Amino acid sequence: MPKILIVxxxxxxxxxxxxxxxxxxxEVVESTxxxxxxxxxxxxxxxxxxxxxxxxxxxxxxxxxxxQELSPDTPVVMISGHGNIDTxxxxxxxxxxxxxxxxxxxxxxxxxxxxxxxxxxLITEKKxxxxxxxxxxxxxxxxxxxxxxxVKQTIEKVGPTDARVLxxxxxxxxxxxxxxxxxxxxxxxxxxLVEVNCAAIPSELIESELFGHEKGSFTSAHKQxxxxxxxxxxxxxFLDEIGDMSLSAQAKVLRALQxxxxxxxxxxxxxxxDVRVLAATNKDLxxxxxxxxxxxxxxxxxxxxxxxxxxxxxxxxxxxLLTEYFVDQICAEYGQAKKKVDKGAMEALKEVNWTGNIRExxxxxxxxxxxxxxxxxxxxxxxxxxxKPQENFRLENLFEQFDDFDSLKxxxxxSFENYKQLEKVN
Length: 426
Prior knowledge:
The chain is of the alpha/beta class. Helices cover 49% and strands 15% of the residues. Helix 13 (319-334) crosses helix 15 (357-371) and helix 14 runs parallel beside helix 16 (378-384). Mean pLDDT is 85; it is low at 392-398.
């Protein structure tokens, strides 16, 4: 049964509209002012809202702005006994479906409500179709090896929950893809997945980006702006490269996770948010905590579940599958017939040191498709792909093994001489 919210401070108007709408088999809920309307909207969903303009506490014009934030797809029919053309135009600009003067023509009101519901149904149907297209076009997690199979199994188990997930792994391994599939498997997948690259936003702007700001809160704040937490309300917020977030922003994110509330920059009003947070980093956050660059309490809030995405060098058996996938994808993008990759080329690709991981592999496949002839051969790989020597240790770990610089210097010189001798033998 369709559900309609009537918002009017006039009890007689509410009673009349209730009688008419219930006779037409609608479920009716009443509200006396704009504030109560917002409370009702947070507690339930409605097919249509009938909203008066002149009301105490919060009038209809202010209420519709808040309704557009909370439930932008819910059609709102404005009614008023003090309306004119200017009022009607302003109401429609703010997002109203239609404007009707009091006393309302009941036949017109019923037709308007039916039309509003038709529009709402079309919006819902459009979203369902977009979701199907999105899922069809969404990139799969390619791989059959044990390491990537473990990642897929974890996504299937954790996705349907609201647990926070920390996704770790080197650059180019597909951490963003893991986040998208976690969202896709969740009950929040009807709402938005909002992505924020913390490394790409200057530290002085990150708080405004995450929490929004009020008009006039700083020099360039010419109007109010909603932050990513508010935009992700009901859905998922993905904080990529969270290890690069400033400590002050970390403190506010921690508060948001603890209390499910945020405050816009320059504002003094707490705003409730319902958001699942996923985070990703290519850094060792334990090391960052030891260096005082990352809050330990925030780490424990984020790392309820940790998914470590393996580097491509750790899953070389998946390289043939990934290569075939990229060949299909890139050839289709270029509008050309699929190129075959011979066995020698595939074996040569498996021997490359993939420091850039899957992102680098895709670039290499694209290069080979462009520069090769009818098929991609081992000679093409040897000619166009330069492999870098694998690194078996991190430099900072090497420093820890020596008491002074001279010892380290002697070790490096000796290692270099051994490497040159080995190179001569080979």
